[in-house]
Amino acid sequence: MPYIKNFNEKDEAEMALFIQQVLNGIMLGSIYSLVALGLTLEYGILHIPNFAHGALYMAGAYLTFLLATQIGFNYWLAMMLAMIALAAIGVLVERLVYRPLIKESPLNSFIAAIGLIFIFVDGALHIFGPDFKRFPPVHYEAFQVMDLTITLQRIIIITVTVLLIILLQLFIKKTTIGATIEATAQDREGALLMGISVNRVRMIVFGLGTALASIAAALIAPIHLVYPGMGGPVILKAFVIIILGGMGSIPGAIIGGFILGLVESLSGGYISTAYNEVFSFGVLVTVLAIRPTGLFGAK
Amino acid sequence: MGGGKKFIKIINVLIIIILTSLMGNLSILLADVINVGYTGPLSGGAAKYGRNNLEGLEMAVEEMNAAGGITVGGKKYTFKVIALDDRYKPADTVTNARRLIELHKPPFIFCPHAGGILGMLKFNEQEKFIIHGYTDSPAVLQQGNRLLVKAPMSMGFYNSGVIELGWQKGWRKGALLCGTHESGKLAEKIFEVLWKDKGGQIVANAPADYAKVTDFYPFLTKVLAAKPDCIFLYGPSEPSAMIISQARELGFKGGFVLGSQCKLDEMEKVTPLKLISPSTGVCPVGMMPLPLMQDYSKRHKERFNTIPTSESAFNYEVMYIFAEAMKKSGTVSDVYKIMEAVPQVLPVGKHAIRGIHTMTKEGQFLSGYFAMEVDEGKFGKPVDIDPRPWYQKYGATWMPK
Amino acid sequence: MRQTKFYNFISRNLAYLIFIMVVATIPLFVSSRFYMHILIMCGIWGIAAASMNLIMGYTGQVNLAHGAFLGIGAYSTGLLMLKLGINFWLALIMACFITVAIGFCIGLLAFRTKGSYYAIGTMCFNVIVTVIIENWENLTEGVRGLLGIPRPTPIPFPFGKEINFTTMAANYYLVFFFLILTLLIIRRIVNSMMGKSFLAVRGNEELAESLGINTLFTKLKSFLISVFFAGLAGGLYASYIGFLSPEISDYHVTFEILIYCLIGGLGTMAGPVIGAFTLTVISELLHGMAFPRLVAYGFLLVVIVIFLRGGIMGGIHLLWANFLPKGKK
Questions:
Q1: Where do the domains of chain B lie, and which CATH numbers do they carry?
Q2: Residue B306 Ramachandran class (φ > 0 left, ψ -120 to 50 alpha, else beta)
Q3: Which residues of C are less than 8 Å from A104 in CB distance?
Q4: Cβ of A100 under 8 Å from any chain C Cβ?
Q5: How far does the CA of residue A118 sit from the closest CA of chain B (Å)?
Q6: Which residues of chain A have pLDDT under 70?
Q7: From B18, which residue of chain C is nearest by alpha-carbon distance?
Q8: Mind listing the pLDDT tens digit for each residue in C111-140?
Q9: pTM, full prediction
Q10: What is the ipTM of this complex?
Q11: Per-residue exposure over B61-79, b if at least 16 CB sit within 10 Å of its own CB, e if not
């Protein structure tokens, strides 16, 4: 009967559309989670938001791009090397900029971060030029399963994100350094009393945070473009995520990231893409109205 | 170190900064130099656009100086470009313009964004400088200002030719995926109005901030669900190219109608032509079948190592127009006389690379352009589009409601 | 006895009187329209910074939505003048109250959170406001921008004359009149009982609560007053520049104002104004350098913030303390 056949087809198409948008949301979510992870780690140890995280993310992207294109390293090797370099830069930033301001009001660190952003972004602009640079397509194979599409690069992003999350959890819960980090994050004075070198922990964690930013940038660059201002929109979303999930909470960053990804994808797909940001921030405001410290934040 | 000593250190640094910046301004004391001002975005998201504009201006000035300068009223003059960054903010444009007037007294100021141009239009007649406003916003022409010229034609004109080619290919159901910036929103309306005028349908609309969006999949999924024949794009070249390649990943086999901001030669560097096919767009300046333009592109590539665009080409030509107008009017300071001479010197001989041939009474320069198809991995032949029929039908200041 | 009172008044308000005298006489010496323009912009940003100083410096709340309110004030003024034909003076007052009304709604929601959450929450409000201004085209003209906002309506003067605002000097006096008014009002508030409650909340919120101060009310009051003057600054900007686009409410504007406050000296009366002035001038001077301007600016920010605690005012206080002869306070 023709009527019923049409109905099923339309239903199937709607279902496929919905699943594709959910899939898009998950892909988006893993990208966001990766960036938010580094940020939440940094907050956990510094107790102030590192506003320059986006600029460091951008630096990681450019470094990976340079190593992979100008010097011709293999993609994964370039990513590793850039990650190490960014970890070193992160340690320097912590030591030279955030450490002297440790006793001051967090506003001072905020202004210092803004200054760093100017230095990094304008510096990148003058060194590399304002053009959008395309990362050479690394894993561009696309898979079509039934009516759904996903590319290999995005599968890699999701996989690496999950791997990193698991590794991070193991690191913090199962190793001594991890326990040290957790102790210092929770109670600085107590840690000091126990003989833990708080300064060294700060440097390690901050370096870890920036390394994560670099990996995120290297993973995302092939599906987007590299340009000096790329850190701006990303850092804003990352902050929304860590507030949503609770600052300093790793599960919060992950869940927050996926929530944001899904909200953006589904609200854009079904309501309006122009008001994308309003929906994301609207969700944030709603969550904060109910739980002022985010979903998993400490009270 | 007491806090006081640190304070003194900082004062010292500030004094050094003040002195170095003052030294940069000593050149204004040379009498036979005509200063040309530029205020535009040289940092931030629009930096590339701002630089493209500046490149054309700089190249014209360098060439004129290399040729020994120009002779006006029996005296020789060379030019100097003074470029200031206004970060795309109108308030900063006004500050920069006032700074230029105060320190350098330029008879011309070039600016590539409507906000800045509108800000300067409030006092350019009083302070006596001519503005070249590089923008596709018709609003600047509606202020009744007598010292304004505008080279880019209305966006409606550029996009109508591109749409026409798309229509000829048999596309009827269009979807919009334009940028959310000022010109993107204008382009979206223009596409919609013109396409529907022809009898076409708009089946989906998913505007995106081309610079901020990380992943276009959600937008494309929404658009592709409506099964369009073609997708209208408008935004910077590289993100537009990304949208195309992601659309192909998602299985879209239809065409793209590329607005005037999308430059096919820049897009080709990001996404291979065979993925861009089939589409219609504006013929890149470097590929226009005009000998003068071909020559200019070569020189531009050698000098700046970047692809020449309409931004640089138009500003290059306008600078020569200004120079010729000064020669014709016999004055370098009476801007009203120079302005009167402008329409009389068009076209400017071998420097008329974009072919500006007339100026409307509001200050709009008329020139043509070429539209182009991209099919099966190759650029098609450029199609010449004459502006006069469009201007007779719609006028220089047409804006869709 | 009257003599002593007069003497006391002068010595307590010396700084302000000198400031007013300098401000009043500058247009007599400065004829360059460029410098006048810079001063006018400094004045407008000074009002914005002084108002942010109230909620941040004196009440200790890191409110990052300030740019949004500047934008709301600017757009309200512009729209009331353009679409409803209201004259500037009425439009300006109405705009300030509209800003306060919107601020009330946002403030109620925002103050449920504290600390870093409050900071980033307010920043998100800022972004929401910017996005709404960009997309609500029927009201605000969106990204096309609002153009042709007229200068303030001329004030009639006796004997058939009038004060009009086509000259730089007139606009200068207008802006600085409002700046001085803002500073005087804020100073009055800071020195009053309400101001003391602000400081109490800044010092230790829980302690203040336990002392019987309704901290939510206090924070809200401080927020609304600061937002009022942010709207005022916005309205002045709208009329002076004559053109508005959504970026005027962007969170980057908030950051700029924050930088003025902090570099000038948060929690001091003169700090924000000095910061606005100094940084505008520095930014202008950096134009002449060959070195990338923003890199130098960023470097300067980092250096000043690390080495000059308490901003410029903090530095001045230190200098003052260092140079006073020993044994005298």
A1: 21-153+292-366 (3.40.50.2300), 155-288+369-394 (3.40.50.2300)
A2: beta
A3: 309
A4: yes
A5: 10
A6: 1-7, 137-141, 146-147, 298-299
A7: C285
A8: 888 887 888 889 888 988 998 998 888 898
A9: 0.88
A10: 0.87
A11: beebeeeebbebeeeebbb
